[in-house]
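quick one, 272 residues, struct below
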Amino acid sequence: MDLLKQQIEALIFCSEQSISLDEISASLKISFDWDPSDEELLNAIEELKAKYTSDEYSFELIEISEGFQFLTKKQYYATVSALIQHKAKKKLSVSQMETLAIIAYRQPVSKGEVEHIRGVSCDYAIQKLLEKELIEISGKSDTPGRPILYSTSRSFMDYFGIKSVKDLPQLKDLHVEQMNEIGIPEGGSVEENVELIEEKEYSAEINSEVDEISSEKIDYTEEDIFSGDESNKSEIDVRDEDHLNVPDRKSIFMENEQKKEIEKEEGFENYD
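---
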């Protein structure tokens, strides 16, 4: 197995994503019918790592996403970033980040479970994450309906620079911002605080309008609307009582009696 280190170096260099030991071994098996052990492969990779730690090189060999990949050293990030300007397809919206976080920590998980946690539809977010190859379909659930299950992909680990999903920060390691007396995170920017206050005021205004509409119920008595049967009593829901004209039965009766008296006097006895 002459030039084993150089062959491994070429494979890692040409791979668009991180390449695993199994993939390296399979490639060498197909090309040269070599069958190196994992220990031999790791020894050769360690020599390559030591080689590229030199300041002579602007990149280094990194173990990432359950494999190995050549990446630019951190001190050259600004230069490279100015050139590529962060590919637009890799930018994630807030909803996509929330959906991706749920899938990462609960995988494999169905769309229904994600929507139950977020409380909103996740169709669009999941579609975009699939297009960006940050998640993938990992199977179907055994629950009724056999919903599709989603998991993170290898591109996810490449994107966030982790070796495996086990390297994700645990909930206990996440910093929870302290809230002050009016519900604003301490240390937040003025713009963030103003936006949060406006959002709370808007929610309070909507809730107030809903309560006001719900309370606009007027109870009318039997004398005003109904007569006789108690079962006819009901609560009438109106938003503007000025629009409800309730007839005065007593006044109508008196007017009809007066008309009859006038007709009798004139000699007309036309009764209803």
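The beta strands are 59-64, 67-72, 109-110, 135-140, 148-152, 217-218, 236-237.
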